[in-house]
Amino acid sequence: MCSLSEPPGSSPSPGTSRPDGPLGHPDGAAPREVERVLLGGEPRYRKGEVAAAAGVELARAERLWQAMGFAHVDDDAVVFTDADVSALRTLVQLVSAQVITPEVETAMARSFAQALSRLAEWQIGLFKSVLGERFAQDVTTTAQFAEAIMPSIEQLQGYVWRRHLTAVAGRELGERDTGEEERTRVIGFADLVGYTRLIRDFSEIELGQLIDQFEDLATAVVAQNRGRIVKTVGDEVLFVTDTAAEAAEIALALNERIADLPQLPPLRIGLAEGTVLARFGDVYGSTVNIASRLTSVARPASVLVNRELAVALRDRPEYALISVGPTKVQGFRGLRAWALRRSRGADR
User: For 263-305, how does the pLDDT look when each residue is reduced to its tens digit (9 = 90+)?
Assistant: First the structure.
């Protein structure tokens, strides 16, 4: 193993192999100018050196890198920076200080990756849309653009993160958190009707514009009614609320708003109230599955809810609930559903 005493900014020794760089260039290495800007420093360490500097076994370091979605690198590949050493050391210190448990560290790394990899894809897409052909053909221009815009992006990311952190803390403190991860929540799915046909009939640009419109609308309606979007997957949005009324308003408002946009197809929406396991920004459990199944059998421009949610809403005069009887869905025998609508004369 090589020493970590190489001077900062030193280059890999001649003949050192390097795997695909952060931009995944087919020649096996990202352009150095761009790589240096995006990584925030010059690659100067092999993976064994990073693990040694952070004071962890190499196997543990590789497990964490894999959880973060980073590709495997050869033992002699010089692709790590001082930031890699610092990040690995910080994670180890959090475990040593018992802020997180050893069992949680891999899940935390995986959660970071799931949230940020999608953000990175979008940001590189932004680079490409601004620079056009220069993105791939003029490495110097790409590096200069990245260096100019990265501080602003980092500042905005920090701002949004702190705002969401404050909002979540407010909800949890207001509930006098007991530390339990399972709670009663309302889960909602909203699914675009006829998405397979849209993929066939629309160009990639048209489909992208349609999905952007749908996600913009869903984000606005969910936020206005105090819900939270858990994730979007193609033509579907998964959201969660703390109360039945919030979920009902989101579902009905989504159908009402999308009806005013003729370029968008109607939605199928399923809502289910029940116990939900929330972990690392995602939700799990039978309540999530029921909401998904109800969505799959709902008619276009309709909302189906489960028994628990129907009970929670039945005394609210602004809503009408119509029993559709037992619903045949995979994995749930005798699941009953109710169609949710606004009462006649109720305000939109």
Answer: 888 999 999 999 999 887 788 999 999 999 999 889 999 999 9
Identify the burial level of 318 via C-beta atoms within 10 angstroms of its C-beta, where 0-12 means exposed, 13-18 middle and 19 or more buried.
Answer: middle
* Residue 35 tokens, joined: 């790589």
Measured distance CA(266)–CA(194) in Å, rounded: 9
Nearest partner of 281 among 161, 119, 160, 112, judged by Cα? 112
Q: CA gyration radius for the chain? A: 24
Give the span between the Cα atoms of 244 and 226, in whole angstroms: 11
10 Å CB burial of residue 149 (0-12, 13-18, 19+) is: middle
Burial degree of 273 (CB within 10 A; 0-12, 13-18, 19+) = buried
Pairwise CA distance, residues 255 & 347, whole Å: 14
- Tell me the per-residue pLDDT of 66-100, one tens digit each, with 9 for 90 and over: 888 888 888 999 989 999 999 999 888 888 888 88
- What CA–CA distance (Å, rounded) separates 330 from 336? 13
Fold of 180-342: Alpha-Beta Plaits (3.30.70)
In the chain, where does DSSP find H-type helix? 32-39, 47-54, 58-67, 82-96, 102-131, 134-137, 139-174, 195-201, 204-224, 244-259, 286-297, 307-313
pTM of the model: 0.64
* Runs of H (alpha helix) within 225-285: 244-259
* Closest by Cα among 80, 69, 82, 54 to 109: 69
Instruction: Provide the residue ranges of all domains of the chain, joining segments of one domain with +.
Output: 32-167, 180-342
